[in-house]
Amino acid sequence: MKAFTPARLILLFFTAVYIVAAIIYVTKEGRFEFLIYAGIFALLFLAAFYIAVKYELPIWMLWLLSILGALHLAGGWVMVKGDVLYNLVLIPIPNWTGLTIWKYDQLVHPYGAAAVALISYALLARTTPLTRTFLFAAAFMIGNGAGALNEVVEFITKITVPHTDVGGYYNTALDLFFNMLGSIIGAALGLLIIRRKS
What we know:
The protein has a two-stranded antiparallel ribbon. 72% of the residues lie in helices and 2% in strands. It has helices at residues 6-29, 33-54, 59-77, 105-127, 132-160, 169-193; strands at residues 79-80, 83-84. Strand 1 and strand 2 (83-84) form a beta hairpin. It has one domain. With 198 residues, it is mostly helical.
């Protein structure tokens, strides 16, 4: 199977352009913590690209990941009303906790977890004899695990890069909660739309 089809080359070009643009911008602005995120995402995307080609996953799944990278990097370097896009309140939802919901950050987290869970479901459906119930459970846990790993990266960045603002305890807890919701959605979508490869 040919790895670098025109459609995949367009995807790689799109992804490379926004990663390079983000690196140039944050370097110029001195916000070096986002270099860590850009580097990690680039490596993970290349690994996902290799796996998708090897196991013949549909290209739209890679587009889900590429869009996730664009949303994530934009959240950290696009400024709106004097603050990063991640802190933008999309729809203010009153709640008894006093926490700010629903922000851009709380859109990206469930989207990312859903994408990872859906792709994991598809990959496991092609490579394992797991039942659909176990595929759902495994995809859900992988989506949650990826979200938790992202929080670990944020924590490491917080304690190693000066003046990094990734939020405190409540931010982490909300991120984990929205990751869980996204993982449920992604695994459920896998259950509904993914069929085993004959």
